[in-house]
Design goal:
By secondary structure, the chain is α+β, with helices and mostly antiparallel strands. Helix content is 35%, strand content 24%.
C-alpha cells in the first residue's frame, strides 16, 4: 500500500448570497487576526492561545491562524492581503444525504453545513472520508474568481499495482512530450501553441515594463504560470491514462540541472518560446508523479544521455538526428522524439562515453565486472564497451 495525499477542490452547490456573505466575513476576520499577529515578535506568537486574542472567529478558526503563524509562514510573511480561513481535521466533516454531499465547518456565525457540487471523479474519495477509509487533513475556504470553494486535504492508502509494461516519456520544447511503449504505441503533444503563447506573454511584459507598470507585470507572470500549470495538468492526466491503459509505470529521462549543463545559443535563450529557463519540465514531472501514485503506479528516472541519438532497434549509438528526424546507420528513419521515448522505455541505467560511438552500444543489460550501472559519463573503461547492449542483439 502507498499513502497518497491529495487536495480536493470542491465548488459549493447553488450557494446563496447570505452564506457567501458569511464566508466573506469569516475571511475578513481571519485576515485581520493574521495581520495583527504578524505585528508580534515570532517568539511571542509561540506562547499565544485562543484565550489571549480578541476576534469574532470561533476558537477552531482562530487556533488554526495562530498555529500557522507560529510556523514558517509566520516568519516569511510581512502582511497578508487575504488569509483564507482554515480548520484542522477535527472541526470539519463530510455528510451524504441521498446523492447529495455537503461539508460542515465553523464560520463567524457558527457551524454551517453547505452542499457541494461533486464531479464523479471525487465520489469514491468523499465516500472514503465518510467511511473513515481516508485520513482527513485540513479544510480551507477559498474564493477564486468570485466562486467559493472548499479545499479538502485527505490521505488515502492506495494499493500498489504491479506494472508489467513500461511507458517512456521524452520531454521537450518543440514537442512537449512523447509517450511510447517498448512496442511503439505512442502519444504526441505538440509544443507549437505553448511557444507561441510564451512569446505573446514575453511581448506583453516588455510593453508593460516600458510603461513602468510593474504591478501589471507581476499579475501577467502569475497568469502565465497558471496557464502553464493547467497545460501540464492536461498532459500529465492524458499520459497517466495512457500508461494505466497498457498496465505500465512511466519512465522519464533525468533532466536535473539541464538549464545549467546544456548549451544554448544566446538568441534562443532570449526567446521565451525556446529558452530552457521557461521550460516547465519539472512541473510536468511532479504532476505525473502524484497522478500515477493515485493509480498505484510509479515514476522512474533514467539517464538522459544519447536517448535521441541511439537506435531503438539495436541500442547502438550509430544513428544521426536532424531536427525531428532520426536516421539509423542502415538508412532507417523515424521521428526522433518517438525514438527517444522508446529508448527511455527500454533503458536500464547504463551509459557510455561519446567517443565510443563507432560500434558501441549506449545502453545495456549485462553488467561488467567493475559495475557500470549508473556510472557517470566518460568514466567507463573502453575495454568494457562490447559488453553493453540495450537488449540482446540478433546474431
Amino acid at each position: 500500500m502507498v499513502q497518497v495525499t491529495t487536495t480536493l477542490k470542491l465548488k459549493f452547490f447553488d450557494l446563496n448570497q447570505v452564506k457567501a456573505d458569511v464566508f466573506a466575513q469569516t475571511t475578513a476576520a481571519s485576515t485581520a487576526l493574521a495581520n495583527e499577529l504578524l505585528l508580534l515578535p515570532h517568539a511571542k506568537r509561540k506562547q499565544l492561545t485562543t484565550a489571549q486574542v480578541v476576534t469574532p472567529l470561533k476558537s477552531a478558526l482562530s487556533n488554526q491562524v495562530i498555529r500557522i503563524l507560529k510556523g514558517k509562514a509566520g516568519k516569511r510573511a510581512k502582511a497578508f492581503k487575504v488569509f483564507w480561513p482554515e480548520v484542522n481535521k477535527q472541526n470539519w466533516k463530510v455528510v451524504k444525504v441521498g446523492s447529495t454531499y455537503s461539508v460542515s465547518f465553523p464560520t463567524v456565525q457558527g457551524v454551517k453545513r453547505v452542499p457541494i457540487a461533486v464531479h464523479p471523479h471525487f465520489v469514491d474519495q468523499l465516500d472514503d472520508i465518510i467511511n473513515g477509509d481516508a485520513e482527513k487533513g485540513t479544510l480551507k475556504l477559498m474564493q477564486l474568481r468570485g466562486v467559493w470553494y472548499a479545499m479538502l486535504s485527505i490521505t488515502r492508502d492506495v494499493p500498489k499495482v504491479e506494472s508489467s509494461q513500461r511507458v517512456g516519456v521524452d520531454r521537450g520544447q518543440n514537442t512537449l512530450a512523447v509517450a511510447a511503449t517498448k512496442g511503439g504505441r505512442c502519444l504526441f503533444f505538440s509544443g507549437t501553441e505553448v511557444a507561441h503563447r510564451r512569446r505573446h506573454f514575453q511581448q506583453l511584459r516588455r510593453e508593460l515594463q516600458a510603461a513602468g507598470k510593474y504591478r501589471a507585470v507581476k499579475q501577467l507572470e502569475r497568469r502565465e504560470s497558471r496557464w502553464m500549470r493547467a497545460v501540464n495538468h492536461t498532459l500529465s492526466r492524458r499520459i497517466v491514462r495512457f500508461a494505466n491503459s497498457v498496465g505500465a509505470d512511466v519512465y522519464l529521462e533525468d533532466l536535473s540541472g539541464i538549464r545549467q549543463t546544456a548549451k544554448q545559443r544566446k538568441q534562443n535563450r532570449a526567446d521565451a518560446g525556446t529558452s530552457r529557463h521557461t521550460w516547465a519540465y519539472y512541473d510536468l514531472e511532479t504532476k505525473l508523479g502524484y497522478k500515477l501514485a493515485m493509480k498505484g503506479r510509479q515514476v522512474h528516472k533514467r539517464p538522459a544521455a544519447y536517448t535521441s541519438k541511439t537506435d531503438h532497434r539495436t541500442g547502438r549509438l550509430d544513428g544521426k538526428r536532424s531536427r525531428h528526424q532520426f536516421t539509423g546507420a542502415d538508412g532507417y528513419q523515424c521521428n526522433a522524439d518517438w525514438n527517444a521515448a522508446v529508448n527511455i522505455a527500454q533503458w536500464d541505467g547504463f551509459s557510455c562515453p561519446l567517443i565510443l560511438k563507432e560500434a558501441a552500444s549506449v545502453m545495456g543489460v549485462v553488467a561488467s565486472a567493475d559495475g557500470v550501472l549508473d556510472t557517470p559519463l566518460n568514466s567507463m573503461n573502453p575495454i568494457e564497451v562490447e559488453q553493453l547492449s540495450l537488449f540482446p542483439l540478433s546474431a
